[in-house]
Amino acid sequence: MTLLYADPLFQEHNTGRHPETARRLASIHAMLERTGLSRRCSAAAFQPVPEYAVMAVHDPVVLARVKEAVGQGGGFLDADTVVSRRSLEVALAAVGACSAAVDAVLQGPDQTALCLVRPPGHHATPDRSMGFCLFNNIALAAQHARTAHGLSKILIVDWDVHHGNGTQDIYFADPTVSFFSIHRYGHGFYPGTGAANETGTGPGLGYTLNMPVRFGTSRPDYRSMFTSALEKAADRIKPELVLLSAGFDAHALDPIGSLGLEVDDFALLTRLVLDVAKTHAHGRLVSCLEGGYSLDALALSVQAHLEELLAFKG
Ligand SMILES: [Zn+2]
């Protein structure tokens, strides 16, 4: 079974007129009800993490800035990153859900988990919130897997159309958490990092693997680039746990990413990541929602993703 982490609280991060809107989750939840998929998942419980927990990967200034803006009733952390009155509470819950999912898949019997959280996290760097992201949910989940469970070989796969610069920065010098990202790159596409020659530093050299993709890359080319790079990343670290930054903004209809993928591609990518989890990590995979801004394409892509998770025989 797949554990499903979802809560109405995640719709209380109010961004106003913004692509990263609570309507994204409303669209996903309507799909889950319509298809009956949520009833096939295990119900999952979680608690928000305490404020200090985000300092496991972030400088205290990151928390302080969020608290300050929230305390003023809301505001902007950067040109694209907005918070509202309850955003701190919601962001701490998002971290809590992703960390609880790590606990659950490591304890079993469920091997896979999907965390339908907001705000997203993969752009949040050690010292700043950016790109719609307050705290780095997946980096904090990886940190939790290390400190609470003693894991030392974790693979983070990031197929969001944007480079997960925050996750990369956090683990760039760290060989215990390997980061593999495939993303659109070039001509100023956000955030501008993630070149193929960014491969880590010091003891972490070789544990960051970037697969930049140009606008206009065909679906077959994308799929083969993903397949070969994922294999390489998995062979390098042989992970005990796989975490996935699951953004769905590489879909052809996405108003921001527009890379050209279709729903079927997300099903295939899911199977490939599950194969890695099965080969190395006893089937343990925690998937955390990142981007995806076409309400319809997002819901259908998450549906395909979750159907593969549910079909998985670990
Ligand atoms: Zn994105």
Secondary structure: number of strands? 10
Structural class: alpha/beta
Which small-molecule species are bound to the chains here? zinc ion
- Main beta sheet, described? 8 strands, parallel
Terminal CA distance reads 10 Å
Question: What number is the mean pLDDT?
Answer: 98
- Which residue ranges are poorly predicted, with pLDDT under 50 across at least 5 consecutive positions? none
**Roughly how much helix do the residues carry, as a percent range?**
25-40%
- The rough form would be described as globular
Task: State the strand order across the main sheet.
Answer: 2-1-5-10-9-6-7-8
* Total DSSP helices: 8
Task: Kindly describe this structure.
There is one protein chain. By secondary structure, the chain is of the alpha/beta class. Helices cover 38% and strands 16% of the residues. The protein is built from eight helices and ten strands. The strands form two sheets. Strands 2-1-5-10-9-6-7-8 form an eight-stranded parallel sheet, sandwiched between helices. Strands 3-4 form a two-stranded antiparallel ribbon. Helix 1 (23-35) crosses helix 8, helix 3 (87-107) packs across helix 4 and helix 6 (219-237) runs parallel beside helix 7 (263-280). The longest helix has 21 residues, at 87-107. It is globular, with a radius of gyration of 17 Å. The protein starts with a strand and ends with a helix. The protein binds zinc ion. Zinc ion (ZN) binds at residues 160-162, 247, 249, 290-291.
